[in-house]
Structure formats: structure tokens, C-alpha cells
Amino acid sequence: MRVGDVVRIVSLSKAFLASLPPDEIKDVSSMIGETFTVEEIDDHGSAWVTKSWSSGEQRENLHSLGLEATEMELVGARNAN
Prior knowledge:
The chain is an alpha+beta fold. Helices cover 17% and strands 37% of the residues.
């Protein structure tokens, strides 16, 4: 996995979802099945992706997730050129 690769979130742990505030669970759960560009790989090997939602009144909610290998699948590799 490299920065710039495109991944699909296939699952998120129930423990992680349960740790979120109740008003964030729906938004974060909606990320399952969607594709994202990997923005960063951290020192633990987690691939970080971000999604934002417009909540009206010119407010935006943003969630960044550090994904483990079992939580994602590679959809497209970054162009090596």
C-alpha cells in the first residue's frame, strides 16, 4: 500500500464504531463500501483516508480513519511514473 493508492473500505471493527460518539457512528459507518485515496501511511502501517460531509448551514464534518489491511481492499494502485 502506498500514498495515492485507491482503496475500498470493506469493514470497520465493531469496537472502533462503539468507541465513537453516537452522532458520528452513522457517518463513519457510511464509509464502508466507498473508495478513498490513501493520504498517508503511518508508522504502524495504517492507511489514512478522509471523508467530509456537508451538514448544512455552511458546516462541514470531517472524519479521517487509519485503516488496517483487513479493513480495506486495493482498488487502484498509484501511477508509478
